[in-house]
Automatic annotation (TrEMBL):
Name this polypeptide is given: Phosphatidate phosphatase APP1 catalytic domain-containing protein
Record-annotated Phosphatidate phosphatase APP1 catalytic domain positions: 229-333
A GO molecular function held by the record: phosphatidate phosphatase activity
Residues making up the signal peptide according to the UniProt record: none
Lineage: superkingdom: Eukaryota
GO CC term, one of those recorded: actin cortical patch
Pfam families referenced in this protein's UniProt entry, alphabetically: APP1_cat
Amino acid sequence: MTSKKRTLTTSESDLSHEIERDVQSCTQSTYKLVRPQQPKRVVSDCVANILSYMGKRNPWPQPVTKDDELWLLDNTAFPSTRKNRRGKGSTEWEAEFVTAVFSQEPSCVVSDVVVEMAEKIGLADNEEAKKTIETRLRPFLLDIQPGKQVLALHGGDSLLVLGPGGRNGISSDLKSINAAPAGMTIPTTAEVPESTTGLLQSKTFFAEAEGWAVISDVDDTIKSQITSASPFFYLSASPYNLYPFLREFRNNYFPHGQLILRDASWMSLPGLISTFTLGTQEYKTDRIKKIYQWLPRKKFIVVGDSTQTDPEAYSEAYRTYGPKWIRLILIRKVTGVATIGIDEKNKAERFEKAFEGVPRNVWHVFEEPAECYQLIRDAVKAAEETVLYPK
């Protein structure tokens, strides 16, 4: 395929659409094929850093290089609520594609940080423990790479132009994609230089408009109770630096689902400020709103625990989006841990206040996962009876 010469006066939006049209018909692609489509104006690090403050309006986004580390995050596709551009009888699908770009090597000396931390916790002579500390710390110490544009192939033949990322190194793009059966996962693969490291392939889960879905922290209390076509959203207040570890943990123990984490990096001042100023309840409420906008006709089971503000966040969501959207709220009462204020958080009065105005049969506090199974069966049965015998 011959790459068309484009002038710098072409707008970023028009360029993105033009690139997608050029490559849409390709059944196979390699980095060698799409490389000519990468941003052609490479600027100095100083200029790129300044331009990254413009976010999506950055006129000169930079390509991912062999020295970068890229993460493509798993996501969920949903039937679009926007006007269908493909005509009657077809369904438009959309998904939010999120990327994060870092430098492969941190600017600080990781070994010095590891040694200091190991000494403080009494593990200075434990080499295995120090290796574990280094592995866990590394994502927090990588320098973020703002202003990067990512090319990726969805399903092997549809080119997506993602980004450029903002000051936190993250880009988020809502894209229209080809349809697939509900419950299917379709891969998206980054088109990057061979030496680029990271999570270079993500999975898109296709969720039907109706049926059941789950919002939970990383929890397995209900994984055997919901069909394979039901989407899972793992909503956590953890920073996105933990994504690789949580992704591996999910893959090993839990149903596939989208991990939703705080998009704030500790390696930038705005990210650090956001971490300390945006409360957990406010953060989770905002992300639940986004899930509702994606899947407003779903029936949700939401699962949380008593250590943070899950009861308050879920009750607010119930009052905002109504009983047809949130069908069951399950809160695990955390015991046997040395969390500050846990006794107060576990008091019955706390739960009664948090769930004021929410019917008592909708929310439940439990200690053992086995307690939830019958509650879930009852909720599913009640929903089926509502369909068969509407009031």
